[in-house]
From TrEMBL:
GO biological process: inositol catabolic process; L-ascorbic acid biosynthetic process
Cofactor binding note: Binds 2 iron ions per subunit.
Matching InterPro entries: Inositol_oxygenase
Family in the record: Belongs to the myo-inositol oxygenase family.
Subcellular location per the Swiss-Prot or TrEMBL entry: Cytoplasm
Pathway listed: Polyol metabolism; myo-inositol degradation into D-glucuronate; D-glucuronate from myo-inositol: step 1/1
GO cellular component, one term: cytoplasm
One of the record's GO molecular function terms: iron ion binding
Enzyme class of the recorded protein, top EC level: oxidoreductase
UniProt cofactor(s): Fe cation
UniProt keyword terms in alphabetical order: Ascorbate biosynthesis, Cytoplasm, Iron, Metal-binding, Oxidoreductase
Protein name, as recorded: Inositol oxygenase
Keyword Flavoprotein: no
Length: 301
């Protein structure tokens, strides 16, 4: 199968060099029909061994993620005073965690990071910034670790959504928002809520989790990754937007540009999930060279 797809340019400042358009670069990627449990991907109703865990996860996440909670977390974790470590050290910390929100994967997270990055690398060999984005996009899950306050899963993983405006029906397990106090607050429960048309996602408070945290970490540690990479990290769990086109009234033009890259990224993030293990030691030198190129040796977390 040959998919011919035009590559968008990462929306960065004018100084950013334009990326070459390589027309057949993603010809190799075959989207699998089923996940490791024999179901289609992201099927939240399928009777799999993960169903109850995932459902219970979303009950809590939808009940507890409020404007007040998000503001509190952004302030606390924005201090970046929890640890000092390299990107690779953080990857290793993720070895022990399994994501309770994920119907498609029960492998430790480090496997998922490398599966994503390696799948992108195969199809986009020249886009090293996108390989590294694959490696680091879920590092915010380190919030589950004791030295980061051991946050509960509902405050770290799962799909994300804006708070401060009505919860769109395209959110998975939407029914659980009934238990969220913001749902009854007239300031927060209208289509626009506290936002205005086209205000730009940058001005929108998203539910708190690994995306928002890793975005803060990358930005504050002055990564040289392009803005498309930062956008991917920040919104990769915002499925209502990138899959269902909900909340698009909050986007501005720059968001539209970056969204093109996020959609490409998402294919690899989602469909590379499998039981096929990557040889960590073999690929480690390559990824270490990328972290050196785009990040300081030690980051503040
Ligand atoms: O269960 C998954 C998982 O937590 C991913 O890391 C996140 O990005 C997805 O959006 C979510 O649905
Ligand atoms: Fe994620
Ligand atoms: Fe991921």
């Amino acid at each position: 199968m040959t998919i011919v797809e035009e590559k968008p340019q990462p929306a960065t400042g004018a100084e950013e060099k334009k990326l070459p358009i390589d027309l057949v670069s993603n010809a190799g990627f075959v989207v699998p029909g089923n996940n490791a449990f024999g179901n289609t991907f992201r099927d939240y109703e399928a009777n799999s061994e993960r169903k109850d865990t995932v459902e219970e996860f979303y009950r809590k996440q939808h009940m507890y993620q409020t404007v007040e909670f998000v503001k509190k977390m952004r302030e606390e974790y924005g201090k970046l005073n929890k640890a000092e470590m390299s990107i690779w050290e953080c990857c290793e910390l993720l070895n022990e965690f399994v994501d309770e929100s994920d119907p498609d994967l029960d492998e430790p997270q480090i496997e998922h990071l490398l599966q994503t990055a390696e799948a992108i690398r195969k199809d986009y060999p020249n886009e090293d910034w996108l390989h590294l984005t694959g490696l680091i996009h879920d590092l915010g899950k380190v919030l589950l670790h004791p030295s980061f306050g051991q946050l509960p899963q509902w405050a770290v993983v799962g799909d994300t959504f804006p708070v401060g405006c009505a919860f769109d029906e395209s959110n998975v397990h939407h029914k659980f928002f009934q238990e969220n106090p913001d749902n009854d607050n007239p300031k927060y429960n209208t289509k626009h809520g506290i936002y205005s048309e086209g205000c730009g996602l940058d001005n929108v408070l998203m539910s708190w989790g690994h995306d928002g945290y890793m975005h803060m970490v990358a930005k504050e540690n002055k990564t040289t990754l392009p803005s498309a990479a930062l956008f991917i990290i920040r919104y990769h769990s915002f499925y209502p937007l990138h899959k269902e086109r909900a909340y698009k009234h909050l986007m501005n033009e720059e968001d539209e540009e970056n969204l093109k890259w996020l959609k490409i990224f998402n294919k690899y993030d989602l469909y590379s999930k499998s039981k096929v293990r990557i040889d960590v030691e073999k690929v480690k030198p390559y990824y270490l060279s990328l972290t050196e190129k785009y990040f300081p040796a030690k980051l503040r977390w």
